[in-house]
Write a structure and sequence with these properties.
With about 625 residues, the protein is an alpha+beta fold. The protein has helices spanning about 1-30, 30-45, 100, 130-145, 315-320, 325-335, 410-415, 440-445, 465-470, 540-545, 575-615, and strands at about 50-55, 60, 65-75, 85-95, 105-120, 155-175, 180-195, 200-210, 215-225, 230-245, 250-260, 265-275, 280-290, 295-305, 335-350, 350-365, 365-375, 380-390, 395-400, 400-405, 420-435, 445-460, 485-495, 500-510, 515-520, 525-535, 555-565, 565-570. Helix 1 (about 1-30) crosses helix 2. It is elongated.
């Protein structure tokens, strides 16, 4: 929008100046062909580009000096391979008062520009064609001034009764001549314009990205003031909006005061609010845009809900959905130095509330950092450092959260739609991932961590009921797996590798048993598996040992498998039965061994006696 606004203004000024020269020349010569030849020659000398004016220049004198033409095309600067013209104008007209020109003032009645297209493209050394035009004009102006210092003149006083732009499109091409974005100004109207004075302005249009990307609608209204030298723009009472932004955001609004100053760099300042789908955030920002962009920003809000950003998708939906092109953001960050802060009273994500949210913002290259990020959440405290790498495809996220006294079930339900675990405790992670939504990020998860919970439950599995079923040798059925397992404590170490998460040194303590072992879950298949050992306690221990005395002090093998949606647990009942009779088997084995030994000794003794007798 900044590029469109700035260069549209420069283009308008250039067109007005062109028509002033044309009007004066027509009065003197009144020769359309000769004038077009003169204009074409001047453009060639100043920019190196070719100017073509297909239609004749028509002139009228009453009640204003009016001139109009069309079919204008300006070629690309030298060295640019884009086959499209840099600028095309379907029709343009302007009316000018003659008498004020004598005193050095310019009073323009109405300027109308219709069906114009500006094609911005990259050329040698990454320079845009607009930069090339600007540098050529500056170089020519400096050369003319050096040759004849008297050519330097004071700026003319310009007033404009009405400016109207209709169907003005800016196309942005990359170095490979591929169209990346198209911004269309469908209508812009400014009336009674005087430099240095505020005047109402309104504009609307659309923004089209790559194929399959939504077409966005935008609008702008406010009071506009342009300085006498046309180097500063101020916009008060600004009310701007962009609709149909993405599948996550329907609309973005911007209100307040905006100023743009052009010098060695472009200085932009804004004070006001930005609205995400109607939710207002106070925004104060200042930016110096040049070879390096220095940006300072402050964001604050009493309350903000971002449920739309936490929607999960299936693996097929993720693979079918085209990845958003974030390279423009990455390129901008690489040329920027960003500093900022964030403060939100209440941040809501999928029915989970973060309060007293604060964060510091800064970037290193294409990576944007939140360091530190602090909040109260899930009935506890959250402190983390986080970073987002916009140059990575897909988006790369790194987090190191430290969560204390949190309800883990609320966290898992909020971010991953996982409602199988609850408990109060701590979670320490050092994780990296990539993806556009929570599901994809979980599938690309890598890193380590530790979990330590108390007073929680595992949903969907009743281990005590499973043990009772095994002891009575009842058949397993769906009812066996229903219910939940309540525990006093749970802890374990986490290690993730591309979505495969290993849980080692895992232990659960409950009133009736202790469970230790290791487990694995695969986020790509949404599967789980684990092997553990059960140590029974209390009444359940007494019940088992009363029925199977040989199981006293024994650890029971316990297996976990299935999916996130349907987890299944199994106790090795054969091992239990085997353990019951293992003692009898061992006794019988010893008895047989002793019997064989005695028989062998008897036979060997008889053999030796017989041999001695024979000798």
């Amino acid at each position: 929008m900044k590029t469109l606004f700035k260069w549209s203004l420069r283009l308008i000024i250039a067109i007005v100046a062109l028509f002033i020269v044309a009007a004066v020349a027509l009065i003197i010569f009144f020769n359309s062909d000769q004038l077009k030849t003169t204009l074409t020659k001047q453009v060639k000398e100043k920019t190196g580009a070719e100017l073509v004016i297909e239609q004749d220049l028509s002139l009228s004198f009453f009640p204003w000096l009016a001139i109009e033409t069309g079919g204008i095309a300006l070629s690309q600067p030298p060295g640019f391979t884009q086959d499209k013209s840099a600028l095309e104008i379907g029709a343009v007209s302007a009316s000018i008062k003659l008498l004020p020109l004598i005193s050095g003032d310019i009073e323009v009645g109405a300027v109308s520009l219709t069906d114009a297209t500006l094609n911005i493209t990259q050329g040698p050394q990454g320079k845009s064609n607009l930069q090339a035009f600007t540098e050529a004009l500056q170089k020519k102006g400096e050369a003319d001034t050096a040759q004849d210092p008297s050519t330097t003149k004071e700026a003319l006083e310009l007033s404009l009764q009405k400016l109207e732009l209709t169907n003005f499109t800016v196309n942005q091409f990359d170095s490979n001549n591929k169209l990346g974005q198209s911004i269309t100004l469908e209508q812009l109207v400014i009336e009674d314009f005087h430099p240095g004075e505020f005047r109402p302005v309104s504009a609307s249009g659309k923004i089209a990205g790559e194929v399959n990307q939504p077409v966005m609608k935008w609008s702008l209204a406010g009071d506009l003031k342009v300085s006498q030298d046309f180097k500063q723009i101020d916009l008060q009472k600004m009310d701007a909006s962009v609709d149909n932004v993405s599948s996550s955001i329907q609309s973005i609004g911007l209100t307040g005061v905006l100023s743009i100053a052009q010098g060695e760099s472009t200085l932009i300042e804004h004070k006001g609010t930005v609205a995400l789908d109607g939710q207002k955030i106070q925004l104060n920002a200042s930016a110096g845009l040049g070879k390096v962009n220095d940006i300072k920003v402050s964001l604050s809000a009493d309350s903000l809900t971002l449920d739309q950003f936490m929607a999960t998708s299936s693996k097929k939906e993720i693979e079918a959905k085209p990845a958003a092109d974030l390279s423009p953001i990455a390129d901008f960050l690489k040329q920027s130095r960003i500093q900022g802060d964030l403060a939100i009273g209440s941040l809501n994500l999928k029915n989970s509330k973060f309060t007293d949210v604060t964060a510091k913002l800064f970037n290193k290259g294409a990576t944007l950092h939140l360091d530190p990020f602090k909040a109260k959440a899930f009935q506890g405290d959250l402190a983390t450092t986080a970073s987002v790498d916009f140059a990575s495809k897909p988006l790369a996220l790194a987090v190191q959260p430290d969560l204390n006294n949190i309800q883990i079930g609320d966290l898992l339900a909020a971010f991953f739609d996982f409602e199988r675990l609850s408990g109060l405790g701590a979670l320490d992670l050092d994780m990296k991932t990539k993806g556009s939504d929570a599901k994809q990020m979980l599938q690309n998860l890598n890193g380590t961590g530790h979990i330590n919970l108390s007073d929680g439950a595992l949903m969907g599995i009743d281990i005590e009921k499973l043990i009772a079923s095994g002891l009575s040798l009842q058949s397993l059925n769906k009812e066996t797996y229903s219910g939940k397992t309540v525990f006093a404590g749970m802890k374990g170490d986490l290690k993730a590798n591309n979505g495969v998460i290993d849980l080692s040194n895992f232990a659960i303590n409950s009133p009736v048993f202790d469970l230790v072992g290791k487990a694995t879950t695969d986020a790509n298949k949404e599967s789980i598996g684990g092997n553990f050992q059960l140590v029974l306690k209390g009444a359940l221990k007494e019940q088992v040992e009363a029925k199977y005395p040989k199981l006293a002090g024994k650890k029971l093998p316990f297996e976990l498998k299935g999916t996130w949606a349907e987890p299944k647990a199994n106790i090795d009942y054969e091992a239990i039965i085997k353990a019951e009779y293992q003692g009898k088997i061992d006794e019988k084995k010893e008895e047989l061994e002793d019997k064989v030994k005695d028989e062998l000794e008897d036979k060997l003794g008889d053999f030796l006696k017989k041999k001695k007798k024979d000798n």
